[in-house]
Structures are given as structure tokens and as C-alpha cells.
Amino acid sequence: MRTDHLFYQLFQQFPESFFEMIGSANQVENYRFDAIEVKEAAFRMDGAFLPKDNAIDSPIYFIEVQFKKDLEIYARLFSEIFIFLRRHHPQQRWQAVVIYPSRSQDFTHREAQPYAPMLNSNLVQRIYLNELEIPSNSSLGLEIVKLMVEKDTQVPPTVSRLVNRVQTEATNQLEKQKIIEFIETVVLYKLPNLSKEELAAMFATDDLRKTRFAQEMKEEGIAEGKAEGIAEGKAEGIAQGSLAAQKKMILKLFNRDFPVEEIAELVDLSVEQVQQMIAQQSQNNESS
User: Fold this and answer.
1) Long-range contacts of range 24-30, CB-CB < 8 Å, 24 or more positions apart?
2) pTM, two decimal places
3) Is the separation of the CB atoms in 79 and 41 below 8 Å?
């Protein structure tokens, strides 16, 4: 499952969570979060925290989120960084922060050997989320980060605790709804086969009815279709309620710039099937 899109949203909404992870919580006010594209090589970084007002004493933090083992990750990451440095000539020092769900997704010692000088220096910080300790006074954003690697059985009580924090800490209704919607998105990434009833019970709040995915599932009959499928002994998942609803959801997600791989994960189809549906719709639009 690709999660870079989720982390991009997370760091935009909760920038303090990143600085808590790297042990520099007091720096958050000095930075802005942005996406960086290295056009020469068609690279796009998962994100970067850039010092506000181009402060020279504050380092640039380049972020890479990797939830699957990838033998090219360090070759790609360092290529992106050095091309960026050559293109922009920043005056600040820099640090790369690589976020893994667990240590097992990182390289073995032998595979990482060519990059050892940088990996063993203070230029790179590797974070393993399942080893991340969450202090009692941590931010809401950091707790949502931990939710991404929580065991499935621990998701309901964790969500309940998060929702209670949102109800207590959010300053207005719009902010409350936005945070709950993001938590819901994380839950649906982790547990895409949840029924509408299971999702509602987990959140136990009327605010869930206002979130984007809950509205779409209700309007398009996706959650109802899944419940009917289970009754008939099927196991197609949330997005399998009907072919028409399935196609509609795929196109909506695609138009919102969701990567094809993430759409396939959400609707429980192969990447090839999703690409075929998108291509078919494009052909229909051209012929009409």
C-alpha cells in the first residue's frame, strides 16, 4: 500500500508531528512544508520542510516515506537531493529523514553498503514507526502517525481515543470535521473492507456522517452493496457493491489525483483493472 499521499496530507495538517518524530518539536514554527519536484530527472520527493524566510541556521529536511522494501530507495533519494542542491544552491545544511513502518522494510547491511558513509552520518535519520514511542503529551498528529502501523485489532480503541481528543481539543466544528475525516481516511487505507456499520461504531460520532468517504459510500451504495455481498457469501470489499458504483468511485478518486496503485488498493482490484476502467472512460469521453 502506498502511503506517501497520506503522509503528505498529514504533514500539511500536522507539521508538528514530523518534528516530534525527529526529536526537535520546538522547530516547527520555523518551517513550511512543501513538495519538491526535480524536473531534470522527473523526480518528485515525498515532501520537504523548508526554513521560513530562508533562515541559514535551520537545516532543510528532505522526507521519504517507504512502506515497501525498495532496493532503489537510497539511490533515488540521494540523487534527488543532490540534483536539488545543484539546481537551487541553498545555503543551509540538510538532513534526509526516511520513514519506514518497521525495520524489516529497510535494507540489509550488505545491500546498504554503498550508502553506508551517508547512512551512518548525521545526514540521514531513519524512523521505524512500530518502534516509535509516543509520550503522553504528544500531539494529535503524532498519534495519527502511529495509527498507520497499529495492529488491526488495536485500531478501534485507538480511533476511539483519537476521536475523543479531537472532540476535546479542536477549536471549531470545521477543524473537528477535517481531522476526523483524515482519521477516517487512514482507517480506510488500513481496513478497506470495513462495513458502514463497523466504521460508524468505531468513530461513535455524528461527525462521521459528514466526512467525504462516508458521504460517497452512502450516496453510491458502496457500503450497502458490500453488506449485501457478505450476505450472499461474497468477499469483494467495500467498492464491489455494483459495477456502476465501483467505476464512479474509481473515477472520482482518479480525478482527485489519487495514484492508480492507491485506488486499486481501496477498491480491491488490480492496478491493470483500474487502468482499464480509466482508459475506457477516457475513450467514452473522446467519442461523445
Assistant:
1) 27/58, 30/55, 30/58
2) 0.67
3) yes
In a domain, 161, yes or no: no
With both helix axes pointing from N to C terminus, report the angle between 222-231 and 243-255 in degrees, rounded to the nearest 10: 140
Residues 187 and 210: their CA atoms lie apart, in Å, by 16
Closest CA to 145 of 256, 15, 41: 15
Structural domain boundaries enclosing 109? 4-134
Q: How far apart are CA 32 and CA 26, in angstroms?
A: 14
100 lies in some domain: yes
Q: What is the gyration radius of the CA atoms in the chain, in angstroms?
A: 21
Instruction: Please tell me the total count of domains within the chain.
Output: 1
> Which CATH number does the domain housing residue 26 bear?
3.40.1350
In sequence order, what are the residues at sequence separation of 6 or more whose Cβ sits closer than 8 angstroms to the Cβ of residue 275? 260
Cα–Cα distance, 162 to 45 (Å, whole number):
29
Contact 99, 52 (CB under 8 A): no
pLDDT for 13-56, tens place per residue?
A: 899 999 999 999 999 999 999 877 665 555 677 889 999 988 99
Q: Is residue 284 part of a domain?
A: no
In a domain, 272, yes or no: no
Q: Using an 8 Å Cβ cutoff, are 250 and 276 in contact?
A: no
Rounded Cα gap, residues 285 and 265, in angstroms = 25
Angle between helices 155-169 and 140-147 (to 10 degrees): 160
Q: Which residues contact 15 (CB under 8 A, 6 or more apart)?
A: 28, 31, 33, 49, 141
Q: Which three cell numbers stand for residue 50?
A: 523548508
